[in-house]
Design brief:
two-stranded antiparallel ribbon, 3-stranded mixed β-sheet, BirA Bifunctional Protein, domain 2, 7 helices
Length: 176
């Protein structure tokens, strides 16, 4: 029997944790401290900002995340042509704060000032400077500046999408 099925049978795991288990303040608390009248983050998004489903070992996203990390960080797990060609060690960034700045999320990536993704109808702003990241690419510059040349970012991202069969305001991205 698969270990997941054993855990399911024993009910010894949690698929959903509404708040982070990290010490210190939660992301929700940080957002509430930074918010001003410019904020357009609804309570529902505040309630899910600390979930981090990709870090839950028994959650499908957590299982996939572990396989991705093993592929890029442990050459003994998978022996692919990609790993033979690019032998540099990958740094895994999966606990980066979803709160970022307009500068990191848009300006550093040369996204034009009039681009639709900058509009309040598309992005969750905390205040005029801070927002919830709309993509994991916003961490590229900081990793490169730290001298990390090969990295994987696994995180939640947030966009003001109407919920339908293909859209949800909080989803998960892997960037390498």
């Amino acid at each position: 029997m698969f270990s997941f099925a054993k855990n399911l049978k024993s009910k010894s795991f949690t698929l959903y944790r509404p708040f982070s288990t990290n010490k210190g303040s939660s992301y929700k608390d940080q957002i509430l401290k930074l918010q001003n009248s410019h904020s357009n983050i609804p309570p529902k998004i505040l309630d899910i900002v600390d979930r981090k489903l990709y870090l839950q070992p028994a959650h499908p996203l957590g299982i996939l995340s572990e396989k991705l990390k093993a592929f890029f960080t442990n050459p003994d797990v998978y022996k692919s042509e990609l790993q033979k060609k690019y032998k540099m060690p990958y740094h895994v960034a999966e606990t980066l704060n979803p709160i970022t700045t307009v500068q990191k999320n848009f300006d550093d990536l040369l996204i034009p000032k009039d681009h639709v993704s900058r509009k309040r109808s598309d992005t969750y702003y905390i205040n005029e400077i801070d927002l919830l990241r709309t993509h994991t690419s916003c961490h590229q510059k900081e990793n490169i500046e730290k001298g990390i040349n090969a990295f994987i970012t696994i995180s939640d991202v947030y966009r003001r999408d109407e919920i339908d069969a293909t859209h949800y305001p909080c989803f998960h991205q892997v960037h390498f």
